[in-house]
Specification:
2 domains; transmembrane helix; 197 residues; DUF4386 family protein; membrane; mainly alpha; 75% helix; single chain; 0% strand; transmembrane
């Protein structure tokens, strides 16, 4: 059963995203015109990190009631976050940027993609570092080689996307780094769950 504090947090997670998105949406231009194109583009950049948050609320509610439905909701939320973000990027950011910069074409789209991807990549490096730090607290220095490899891979991903050979090697470094960390922490495949005393 959820505590009052958890219930309040869940309610905020369920209610805040649609309210904030709705408030931002009040300023959405009705049509993509040359005059509206800069705000059209910028509005969708603002909404890019907000749209995926819509999926958090249903997942939190479902997992608090029934773990199986929580997992089903998590998968559906993930699919929504991926594919709706594609809509936001293409019809929002790219269309607005192309309309605003009549001469830019692909250079405009690639420029914005690079800038936004940089933000996501830095966040991924941060998430990797935070999770590695958690494992370091649990398993000590044994996780450091894996952490270093995973962080090197995350940095390589930021620099090279998934272009061969360095981007592909970056993905391999991330996978091997995580495998080493999870094994060192006793959380890898075949590891036994710690006993609860």
């Amino acid at each position: 059963m959820e505590t009052t504090r958890t219930s309040t947090r869940t309610a905020i997670a369920v209610l805040a995203p649609p309210v904030v998105i709705g408030l931002v949406g009040l300023t959405h231009p009705a049509h993509l015109t040359q005059d509206a194109s800069a705000w059209w583009r910028d509005l969708h950049i603002v909404l890019l990190p907000l749209f995926p948050l819509l999926a958090v609320g249903p997942w939190l509610v479902a997992r608090s009631i029934e773990p199986v439905y929580g997992r089903i909701t998590l998968v559906l939320a993930y699919v929504y976050a991926c594919f709706y973000s594609a809509l936001d990027v293409l019809a929002g950011i790219a269309a607005g940027a192309l309309k605003y910069d009549r001469e830019g074409g692909l250079a405009t789209v690639f420029g914005y993609a690079s800038d936004l991807g940089q933000i996501g990549s830095i966040a991924y490096i941060g998430a990797t570092a935070a999770a590695a730090g958690c494992l370091l607290r649990v398993a000590g220095a044994w996780v450091l080689p894996g952490a270093a490899l995973a962080l090197l891979g995350a940095y390589g991903f930021m620099e090279n996307h998934v272009y061969p050979p360095w981007g592909v090697l970056s993905m391999l470094a991330i996978a091997v780094g995580w495998a080493l960390m999870l094994t060192a922490a006793g959380r890898g495949p075949g590891a036994r769950a710690p006993s609860r005393s």
